[in-house]
Design goal:
mainly alpha, elongated
Length: about 110
Amino acid sequence: MNDLIGFILISIGLVFDLLGCVGLVRLPDAYNRLQAATKCVTMGTCSILFGTLLVIGFTAAGMKVILCMIFLILTSPVASHAIARGSHKSGVKLWEGSVCDAYAEDNK
């Protein structure tokens, strides 16, 4: 039963990663692409890792999978925020169809 659930989670993670890659190609500006990449890593890769944990069990490799998941969950949002903030400060323009600019509102 754990193997079946693990393979389902791995499949869901692969779909998230595939959609994240499509988002990197299709979305209009750097900020939207960064959003797609962050969701891809946190949801897709963590789902793949959790599915792998269910398949291999709580062995030494399973503990490494847990550590990798924790590392990804903690670092991916922080890194994407830092990249977005840095690109906004360096003058990377938003897509003309963007609704709001939260970083510009913070500077006022």
